[in-house]
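User: Before I run my own analysis I want an independent prediction to cross-check against. Here's the chain; please return only the structure tokens and, at the end, one sentence I can use as a sanity check.
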Amino acid sequence: MSPTGSTGVTGATGLTGSTGITGATGITGPTGITGPTGTSSTANSMYASNTSGSTVLVVLGGTAVSLPNNQSLDGFTASSGNTVFTVPASGRYFITYQVNTSAALLAGTRVMNNGTSIAGSVLTPALSASSYIVTLITTLAAGNQIPLQIFGLVATVVLLGGGSVGAALTIIRVE
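Assistant: Structure tokens:
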């Protein structure tokens, strides 16, 4: 046996004490400087419609639809016949259009860019239709010429009128 004796068994752990009171809140730090104002990428947008029930003489290769009503052009410019809209700034654009006719037709609709149809904008139904709606996003350059067209048949097309939207085109720059 050693002169110091043997070590005894460890005792049980005691109870946890109660939580102390929360200290006072510190003072608020200074406000940081304001960052620069960001750019608004929806600065260029347009809407134009045809609510007068116009007659469109469609040729096989396509006829631009006049959109003289309710124009809100925000930088875009319209041709004298309100059929072609000029893009004010380069960027990616959200485009949506609708064409509503008084009779069902086996016609196509599309948005053109400088004489070429924009991918994703062409709607050619398999059966006659009286309502056409398309939405897409595409890249456009400043100065591009954008008309909405009806194509694919030779016909006299009557758009809805009397306050109803016979045709409308919306273009919004998203970046």
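Sanity check: Residues 32 and 161 are 56 Å apart (CA to CA).
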